[in-house]
């Protein structure tokens, strides 16, 4: 009885071969191990027109900055709601349950709005600075993150004077590098 098997040939790739019944068990084991060792090569897939358009839109610094600002605002909103709920009123023993609820709801609203604004501005500044530096340098590396972190930290703490701006620049740049290394975005 004849069997058709497929073997790997370095010159022609995978080639069908015919073999007789005798000794097929011993040769099949070695050919299967050779086939298992060879990696499967997948064909190259070119991006579609929609994927290219989407990438062009996302590479626009204005779009990226606005999206980062909105996402930062959303994160700040949820963080403010969470942290506002943890606030205990100073005169908790003297307040009724209804008064405590109203106080906590107001505190959550204030905290969430303030956090929303802060995180939105932070995301907007950081994303804009990183995108502009990346476009100017024509490189995608950690230096962009350091500069963007420094600009963001300095801008957010500029009201406190030059010392505060320098400390904010150094602190936010260091934090950005730590996050960058943690996420390992650049090779």
Automatic annotation (TrEMBL):
GO CC, any one term: TIM22 mitochondrial import inner membrane insertion complex
Q: Which controlled-vocabulary keywords does the entry list?
A: Membrane, Mitochondrion, Mitochondrion inner membrane, Transmembrane, Transmembrane helix
Region ranges (Disordered): 22-43
The regions listed as transmembrane in this protein's record are: 66-86
Please give the Pfam families that the UniProt record associates with this protein.
Tim17
Can you supply a Gene Ontology BP term from the record? protein insertion into mitochondrial inner membrane
Membrane topology value: Multi-pass membrane protein
**Do you know which InterPro entries this protein is assigned to?**
TIM22
Q: Bias category Low complexity: which stretches?
A: 22-36
According to its UniProt record, where is this protein located? Mitochondrion inner membrane
The Gene Ontology terms for molecular function here are: mitochondrion targeting sequence binding; protein transmembrane transporter activity
Query: Per the similarity annotation, which family is this?
Result: Belongs to the Tim17/Tim22/Tim23 family.
Q: State the protein's name.
A: Mitochondrial import inner membrane translocase subunit TIM22-4-like
Q: Which organism is it from?
A: Davidia involucrata (Dove tree)
